[in-house]
Design brief:
about 425 residues; alpha/beta; about 35% helix; four-stranded antiparallel β-sheet; Alkaline Phosphatase, subunit A; binds zinc ion
Length: about 425
C-alpha cells in the first residue's frame, strides 16, 4: 500500500508539473465517473462468466482495469446498500435499515446534513460534482443531493441521464478547470423488465413464457415464465451496456477518458428462484449481495487484473480517495479493496449475514433459520455442516447485533457515536469490530 500511495503522489505531482506551464489554475487530479447500476447481479455479466453476451462494453472496461470477482454489498435493498457505500459505514452504524417492501427504520429515508457522503468529500476537495439519479428513494427531497453542485433526478430511461451527465461535464468545464465527479445511479436493469424492443428480441425471442415480477416467494412460477423473465432482465443489461458505451465514448471523444477513474458497481442484485423467491429486499443470499465492481484507471491500475479475494462496499470510497491522493475523513470506516476483507456484515429486514474465516453465516431473526456456506459458494447453494465454524461466525453476528443496538440507543439519546457516553465495555465491543481506535 505504501508503494501504491507513493505512485499516486508521483502521478499527481507529475500532473501538477505538466499543467503548470499551460494552465496555472488547473487541478490535475483525475476525474471520476461513478456508475451505479441498480439491481445488477455480478453473475449476469459476461465478464463474470455469464453464458449470454450481456455486457461487451463492460467487459472491455474490465479488461482496461481491475475486476473484483467477489465483491459484497451490505444490504439487499437500495437505501441501506447505497448509503453504506457513500458513508463507508455498515448499516448497524448508520441505521438506515430496510424493514419491508418500501419501508425503512427511518421512514422516509432522510439523509441528515451531518452525515458525510462521498460527494461532499470530493466537493470539499475542489471537485465539481454532478449527480444523475433515477432511483425514487434517492431524491433531493430526501437530501441525497448533498455535496452535488448539480443534481438531476429523472426516473425515465438512463439515456436521459447519460446525455445529461455528458452535457453537464461540458457545461461546467467552461466555467471551471476543476476535475469532475459524475455519479450516475441508473435503474435500467431494475423491474419492470421492459427493455426497448430490439434488446428484448436479443434474448427473449425464442422464449414462450410470460413476464412475471414481484418481491417474495414465488412457488408457482413455471419454468417458461422464469426463463422469459430472466431473458428480459438480461436484455435490460445489454441495453445498460450500450449506455455505458455511450458514456465512455463521450469521455473518449472529449479527450477526458485517460485522466478519469471509472467505477462501475451495483447496490444489490435480484433473485430468480435460487432460494424460492423473486425480486430483492427479501434476503441476504449471494444473488442479492454479490455485485459487480470494476475500477479502471490505467495510469495507476495495470489493466487486466482479476481480484479474487473478498471485498466489500464500505471499502470502495476509501479506495477511490486513495486513488485520487485524498485523505480519508475520520467518519469513514472502510480501508481499501487491495487487501482481503476479513469480516463483512450485511442485513435485510430480519436477515443478517457475515462473511468470515472463509465461510458465510446467514441468520433470520424471525424464523430462526440459520445456514452456513463456504465463502466460495457464491450463490449459497450447498449448506456446510460445521458446528465450530458456525459458532465462531455467530459470535461475530452477536457483536454486530449489539453494535446495532448501541448505535440505535445513541441515536435515540441524540448523541454522536464519539460521545463519552459510551462505557468502556461498549467501547471494547466497538474496537473489536474495528469501529474505534
Ligand atoms: Zn436498488
Amino acid at each position: 500500500m505504501n508503494r501504491f500511495k507513493h505512485l499516486v503522489a508521483l502521478w499527481i505531482l507529475f500532473g501538477a508539473i505538466s499543467s503548470c506551464s499551460s494552465n496555472p489554475g488547473a487541478d490535475s487530479r483525475p476525474n471520476v465517473l461513478f456508475v451505479l447500476v441498480d439491481t445488477l447481479r455480478a453473475d449476469h455479466l459476461s465478464t463474470y462468466g455469464y453464458g449470454r453476451e450481456t455486457s461487451p462494453r463492460i467487459d472491455a472496461l474490465g479488461q482496461s482495469g481491475w475486476v473484483f470477482e467477489n465483491h459484497i454489498s451490505h444490504a439487499g435493498q437500495t437505501v441501506p446498500a447505497t448509503i453504506s457505500m457513500m458513508l463507508s459505514k455498515v448499516p448497524a452504524e448508520h441505521g438506515f435499515l430496510h424493514k419491508g417492501p418500501g419501508h425503512f427504520s427511518k421512514h422516509p429515508p432522510y439523509f441528515d446534513s451531518d452525515l458525510l457522503l462521498l460527494p461532499e468529500v470530493l466537493h470539499d476537495a475542489n471537485y465539481r460534482t454532478g449527480g444523475f439519479v433515477a432511483n425514487p428513494f434517492l431524491m433531493e427531497k430526501h437530501n441525497f443531493n448533498q455535496g452535488f453542485d448539480y443534481f438531476l433526478h429523472d426516473q425515465g430511461r438512463g439515456a436521459v441521464l447519460t446525455r445529461a451527465a455528458l452535457a453537464w461535464i461540458d457545461r461546467s468545464a467552461k466555467k471551471s478547470s476543476q476535475p469532475f465527479f459524475a455519479y450516475l445511479h441508473l435503474m435500467d436493469v431494475h423491474s419492470p423488465y421492459e427493455p426497448p424492443a430490439r434488446y428484448a428480441k436479443l434474448f427473449a425471442a425464442d422464449e414462450d413464457g410470460s413476464l412475471v415480477y414481484h418481491n417474495g416467494p414465488a412457488p408457482d412460477l413455471s419454468k417458461p415464465d422464469l426463463d422469459f423473465t430472466v431473458a428480459l432482465y438480461d436484455a435490460q443489461i445489454r441495453y445498460l451496456d450500450d449506455l455505458v458505451d455511450e458514456l465512455l465514448n463521450g469521455l473518449q471523444e472529449r479527450g477526458l477518458l485517460e485522466n478519469t477513474v471509472v467505477v462501475l458497481t451495483a447496490d444489490h442484485g435480484d433473485e430468480f428462484l435460487e432460494h424460492g423467491g423473486l425480486g430483492h429486499g427479501t434476503s441476504v443470499y449471494g444473488e442479492l449481495l454479490r455485485v459487480p465492481l470494476i475500477l479502471s484507471f490505467p495510469p495507476l491500475l495495470e489493466p487486466g487484473r482479476r481480484v479474487e479475494h473478498l471485498t466489500q462496499h464500505i471499502d470502495l470510497a476509501p479506495t477511490l480517495l486513495d486513488l485520487l491522493g485524498l485523505a480519508q475523513p475520520s467518519s469513514f470506516r472502510g480501508s481499501n479493496l487491495f487487501e482481503p476483507a476479513d469480516l463483512i456484515f450485511a442485513e435485510n429486514g430480519a436477515w443478517r449475514a457475515t462473511y468470515a474465516a472463509g465461510a458465510k453465516l446467514i441468520v433470520n431473526g424471525d424464523s430462526e433459520r440459520k445456514e452456513l456456506f463456504d465463502e466460495a459458494d457464491a450463490l449459497d447453494q450447498r449448506r456446510l455442516e460445521n458446528r465450530d465454524l458456525e459458532a465462531e461466525l455467530q459470535i461475530h453476528l452477536d457483536d454486530y447485533q449489539r453494535l446495532s443496538e448501541l448505535f440505535e440507543e445513541s441515536r435515540a439519546r441524540g448523541e454522536s457515536v464519539d460521545s463519552s457516553a459510551w462505557t468502556e465495555a461498549e467501547l471494547e465491543q466497538l474496537r473489536a469490530l474495528g469501529y474505534t481506535e
